[in-house]
Amino acid sequence: MTISFSGLASGLDTSSWVDALVSVKQSKITSMQTDLQTIQSKKSSLTATRSTVSALRTAIEKLTDKKFGGTYDLFSKNSAISSDESIFTATASSAAIKQTYNVSVQRLATMTKATSLNSASSIADDSTRLSGLGISAGKLTVYVDGLKNVVEIEDGDTISNLKANLAAIGVNANIGEDGKLSLSSSIAGKTIHVGATTDTTNFVSITGMGAQEDGSYLSSVALYKANASTVLTSEDSGFNTRITAGTFTIGNAVFNIGENTRLSDIINQINNNDEAQVSAYWDDTTGKMTLTSTKEGSSYINIEAGTSNFTDVMGFTETTRDGDNNILSQIMYIDAQTLGENAEFTINGTSMTSTSNTITSDVSRLAGVTLTLKKVSSEEDGDSTLRVEQDSSSLVEAVKNFISAYNDTVNKIEEVTAKGADLQRETSLTSLMSTLRNYANGSNSSNGGAYRLLSQVGISTMQANSGDNLSTATNTLEFDEDAFLLALEEDPDSLEALIGNDNGIFGLMESAIETSLKAVSGYFDVKQSTLDSDITKAQDKIKRQQEKVSTYRAQLEKKFSAMETLIAQMQQNYSSFLS
What we know:
The chain is an alpha+beta fold. The protein is 36% helix and 22% strand. Strands 1-24-3-20-21 form a 5-stranded antiparallel sheet, with no helix packed on it. The chain has a 4-stranded antiparallel sheet with strand order 14-15-4-19. Helix 1 (14-64) runs antiparallel to helix 7 (393-417) and helix 1 (14-64) packs antiparallel against helix 11 (505-517). 28% of the residues are buried.
């Protein structure tokens, strides 16, 4: 930081003189900075205008990109309308024929289900942990002749522990051959009641304990050893037969059981493998596994034993092996599977069947139409109707977006080229606007269709209000959706030619816009390049001028400093002379 003391010798305000002299040259920089801001403002207006014109091009492309087909072709989109979507829904591609069909559903396709013929698990015994049965630790209340007794179930307790705790309060507990747990008084003449609202264990709900006529309690479900967390190959897994490590097949998927594989691991593997084509479920209350096909229809689930005996133990297959575990013979238990049914339906009175509730065109013979059956038609429902027609919604939305983008573009160009505006006298912009207006209001006969004007299809120039002078608002467009839909219904090919073809009105607009947006040689790139160059030149000019002003200030300060030094010396000499 420089500190200067003005006129210490002369008494003159030389700092103010320096500032005043420098300000004359500084005014040139201020003028240059104003010029720079003007150029930068022009660039901002150009960027905003380019963005608006680009948005118009994107809106037009939605309508002219039909040449690429598929989802790009809004003119060929069809919709399939069900008169009762609780019975069936439908979709239609561009290949669908516009027509109305009668549809009735007599039967839905169901899925095949395979369930273990018998319980794969052993019945719980004294060594079975209560937690393995899903019973949580906590307090269990048992009333003996009305006297409340609280039995504490702890983590790690077995059925043997439970029996001992119950025996201590005069209650016998036994598991029958059917796997059901019974509780009864060990003292003749006394009655028991099990469970209270204050219990903190889920014992009663898990076992489904219910009072019997003789005063005892009996579980509603059997208790089995095996559960989802069981390690399949362990000696105490709880299955009727010890499961061996190895492979097995469901559907087209091969699964492997290792030494530490749990039942839950296998279930997750099956359910996450699309090739298995089933969902697996283990039922603790029955000790059985269920496989439900993910494919509808009357087809069996493929189940094969491999090097593991898993599918045999689960009751799906029966396999004989030699001493080296090689398979000698194998059968799949057909009786373990409840075969799914095929769907039955009619289209225009013709009966048809399908292995799936999703009816594709190869089954229905309705080109481009896919039906999804939901429920069986009742007598009250009768036949439902399927109506295939042109999907006008996406086309209408695209036209609305075009009109909005067109109006934004016209308004933007008028704004930035108005008198005194940033891009005034930019003839390329005003020429583009005139071209767009001419196309919007002009006739197009190159396609030979009935429609040659946008106004014939509901797209027209806005009208000035009665009594008002004409304004630029009349150069924007408005949309009559009803008129557009009527034109689409009466002559869709002519409408498509007018606004969808490359040589139609929108196609010509797109070509003009593409020219202006073209990289390097287009108006916007050329103009931006010029403005960028002007900005760089202006910034360099300001920098040079600032350097000159700084040098000028330094020179002035040096000269005034020398003057003050000289005056101070003269004053000192004069003082010496007088003395």
